[in-house]
Amino acid sequence: MSLASLYLKPQMDRRLKRGHLWIYSNEVDVKRTPLKVLESGTQVQVYSAKEQLLGVAQVNPANLICARLISRDAQPLAYDLLYHRLALALQLRQAAFAEPYYRLVFGDSDWLPGLVVDRFGDYLVVQIASAGMEQLKEPLVQALVDLLSPRGVLLANDHSARELEGLARYTEVVHGEVPAEVELIENGARFLAPVQTGQKTGWFYDHRMGRALLNNWAQGQRVLDVFSYIGGWGIEAAVAGARDVVCVDASQSATDQVMRNAALNNVEDKVSVQTGKAIDVLKQLIANGEKFDVVVLDPPAFIKKRKDQKAGEAAYRHINELGLKLLNDGGLLVSASCSMHLAEDTLMDIVRGSARKLGRDARVIARQGQGADHPVHPAIAETCYLKAVFARVFA
What we know:
Layout: E1 4-7, H1 14-17, E2 22-24, E3 43-47, E4 53-59, E5 65-71, H2 79-96, E6 101-106, E7 115-120, E8 123-128, H3 131-135, H4 137-148, E9 152-157, E10 170-176, E11 182-186, E12 189-193, H5 208-215, E13 222-226, H6 232-239, E14 244-249, H7 252-264, E15 271-275, H8 278-287, E16 292-297, H9 309-325, E17 327-337, H10 344-357, E18 361-368, E19 387-394
């Protein structure tokens, strides 16, 4: 494969040499490498201003991040390297987890930018978010089939990230058969994940460690799971011995699935749902005088871009204040965020400030982030996005 060349401006190779994988458009010497002539998704050899080979990258000239390294030598990404990268990713997950339910590929952290693969036993759900990976769709699927022999592979590509790359949105079974729902096991609980119609890939493996931590405190407790989706936190708490669990989500299909998952685990007598916007439901629970021993707040990302910082932090404060009003004296607040732009220290300060505003004191007893199937690339802060603060709260 003959590759075009991309040249950087003087001194712009330092960050790559320190381990980063991204190239910004203002770092490219556009006189030597006119970005406009490069097709989105093309693989190029990257050179320093002094013509030192830095590796191979996939490009998207229209983005601020105009290229992402996929190797540090001259080898392009094709079937052989894809298979090798997937095998390394599998080795890491098999070392960390006894059962085949995990995120198999986590983008840049596995040297496969623009790619997410979730494994549900014999089924794989793939999300492609870059033009470069879209061009490699066929060898990618073949490598996955050769490595794991799955019963089915689903491309769940109906998501907004593709629009930034100029890619069409679609959902397609590209190998075998994939049912509308597939089963997974997490922390001893069973779930049916709606992989063809649900959020993202149908499930969120990233909070696995946090949910396991909560299960240690669930015995005999009354638990409120807000932004519950299909019941990850709440169902696992019920299986772990919680006496009463209320799951809240705006989606009727999600809360219907909560009850199906409760029945799957024989805990439907301990689980109930409230369907509606979280803020409205929380306010109604407060008005009704409800109290809980554990309140879990696991909202979607309120801060998707830096411009959302102020409004997003205000939204986190608001839901934490409402959650605290429902918490018994000595109860446990689990305040989570998947917003990369919200630092863990800021989330802790939001918990502290919200408690003090209500005349209460919070004690952080644990912090939890993403599991081993969401490895953090030490040079790319964006890969470290998940955090959860566990706080005991007193009157």
